[in-house]
Specification:
149 residues, mainly alpha, three-stranded parallel sheet, 6 helices, 8% strand, Glycosyltransferase 2-like domain-containing protein
Length: 149
């Protein structure tokens, strides 16, 4: 998951991933810190946010190549230990069945793509969740309901 800029959005995305429900296979989350400068523990940095959620989520920080989103994804893929990859951005809220649904649909020769629902107020929602606890983020995500079929 490439992360560049303020890590407030990242906190919401990681909180959603920490709330994956029953049937979710083992997984790891790689956050590629693609911010210029050293990867640090400053408040609000990807390293700090990943550290906050480390007890709830198997998350690792990978230094980014600073060559854009595609290069950051490639760096994350190269560092991955699992047999399957699911790519997310750091501003995506997912449901509690997100990873289980991808695992269920997995086929060694298939590319799966999930539905997304663009919310007109998504930027405002993500800003409002910037300092929220993981539980508050999960409640907000649940209130959105499922994506339309």
């Amino acid at each position: 998951m490439p992360s560049r800029g303020p890590a407030a959005r990242l906190r919401a995305t990681l909180s959603c991933l920490a709330g994956q429900g029953p049937g979710t296979p083992p997984f790891e989350v790689l956050v590629v810190d693609d911010n210029p400068g050293p990867v640090g523990e400053e408040a609000g940095s990807p390293a700090a946010v990943a550290g906050e959620l480390a007890r709830e989520l198997p998350v690792r920080l990978v230094p980014g190549p600073l060559r854009g989103r595609a290069a950051a994804r490639n760096a994350g893929a190269a560092a991955a230990r699992g047999a399957r990859l699911v790519f997310l951005d750091d501003d995506v809220l997912v449901g509690s069945d997100f990873l289980a649904a991808h695992a269920e649909a997995a086929d060694p020769d298939a590319f799966t793509h999930g539905r997304t629902r663009e919310l007109p107020t998504a930027a405002r929602l993500l800003r409002s969740l910037a300092g929220a606890s993981p539980e508050d983020v999960r409640r907000a995500r649940a209130a959105l309901g499922p994506a339309p079929a």
